[in-house]
Amino acid sequence: MSHRVSTTIIISAIAFMAVCCVDSHPARGDDRQAPQVAGTTGNTQPTVVKMLTLEAVEPRGNTRTSLSVIEKHLGLSPGDRIDQAALVAAVTRLRDSGLFDSVEDFTRPGHARGSLILVLDVEERGPDLRLGTGNNDLDGWYLIPAALSLDNLTGHGERAAVQLMFGYRMGGLRAHYRRGATPVDRTFWGAELHAMGHERIYFEDGVEYGHTVARSGLSLHLGRRFGRALSLSASLLAETVDADSTGSVWQDNDVSGVDSGDDVAFADLPAGIAAGVGKRQRTTWRTDLVLDTRSTERRSGSPVAGLWGRLRLGYTVQETGDFPDASLDLRTYRDLGAGVLGLRGRAAVVDEDAPFYDRHYLGGLYTVRGFPSQSLTAPAGDGWICHGSAEFRATLMGDATRPRMVGFLFLDAGRGGEPGGPGGDLAVGAGWGVRLRLGWLGYLGADFGLPLSDSPVDESFHGHVSLGWSF
Amino acid sequence: MGGRRHGLLLSVLMTAAALSAQAAPRITAVAPEAHEDVLVCRLATEGLPGERIVSTLHSGLVSAVELKLEILQDGDRSVASNRLLMRLSFDLWEEVYAVSVAGHEARLPDLDGLETYLGALPPLPVAALSALDAATPAVVRAGLRLHPIAPDTRGRMGRMISGGPSAQVGRGDDVQEVSVSLGRLIRFFYGGDEDADMDVSRTSAPFRPEELIHAPH
Predict the structure, then answer these.
(1) How many domains does chain B have?
(2) How far apart are CA A67 and CA A27, in angstroms?
């Protein structure tokens, strides 16, 4: 309980700071701004003057970052034909790369008519203490209360950090080193060390239980981009996983007479959970094929067109039995004028030898809303699931390209089962939600879903709170 | 010989002084006025447009000067503000400069003309007079920031404290992270500099709204 209280306090503090950041800088269109004397206040968009030729990029103040690294992050190289918008976008990319604390830019005429030299006065970033947030499909959202960022420490444009992180159902330490972050890098690779504890949730007889699973290991990944849209990567994870021999009640339940925190002895664990307890040392090979054609143009917090898809194939070797797994995740977006329609479909399958923490569960923010997380699947998890979501997103406040608040309607559906066996009932949920943009924090969200099929809990609706956007 | 040496020294000093002036734009005066029901402000500046903007203009690009005009009452309480983007361009064929800000457009035949124009800017809108408490003394704080390459200013405020996002790379889109530099965040809240995003700023003398002179039409 205290864990949840402290999480709430920290979220509130960060949200408050983010709101302060927003409020401290009234955006254009803020009602406190002055009316115009005549005409417009001045267009914030640069005018396209003409096409020019970039003769050279001339960085100054860089002591360890090479010109080639800077050009990669700019996405420009000498000889490119550019206009003002392209140049502004390139310098913005460089600023956003995080390689530098400051980037001041100006140009001077080149030697040939119609050419220019881009001069960049940069201040390289040193080690930096940061805080932040994140989310992923497995753990939901989490906070990063402290992270030592070591980005670009060697001047190769690398990403490196040591992060302390904890969320509603996870916590731990992670360190990573990654190279090849720019869009023009064909090859990307990296390594990650982690020591995490996860609380895996399952439902039985309407009671929500948690089971602690500790994971620590080292992963290496190597990938290659083929053009702008397609990439193929492979990773190798050597990991130790330790599932507790006992569980605990996660939420009070008056009907069953249990309280949050009550222990669940090994003998009382569901068979599928009991089969997965104990320590396992294993190695997992994973291959990802990713297609990303999403538009960079955004409306109502979403790309206005395009597709993101990932096919993942994996194989885990461990003493208690090797097992393969596979998943296909597709997300597509369409501009409908008044808003954006986002569609997501995901299918995943894993072999029966997989322990419960590698199996699939339905219910919650990332699968079928309107139901508590993981509530639609038996304690041991499913061997396969498929689920889909449709969201119609529209701007409620602010500029549509950078909205302050977005509202949406959603319809989710999902089903799971065992390979070769009958599938479970189709679960359906529908509802509405909002996303509020809080400065650097990104989107804070609340979703309210109505269960349109049988629910394992006695609820007329279920609310979900999130940081970020599930898709 | 001595005369030539003195001449050379004088030339070097003048050049250095000119560069120094170029590198440090200043707001030398902030004069609020009433224009019908709008509070406007005249700014006098020095050092504009500066060497970098001139160089960029001569490359064929558009430059900008961002202006932040803010009314403070009751000490440092901000009651209204306005941000303007003054756009500067240079026609490479006709070799004339152009400036546009808040509906004012000017074409200037040479660099001297541009410097003169920027030295005494036309009245710029700050806020509706109704936004002010008429009985309370107020000041206008004006800040300016040079953008040699005219930007898309949306999102710049977020970047100012975020120090760049830290998105996960190469792990698929099921992991999303954002982070902020703790040092920048602390400076943002406790730095005490409300104009941290401006290159220079200056505050007008205190005035009472009902005492404002009305600018000529």
Answers:
(1) 1
(2) 35
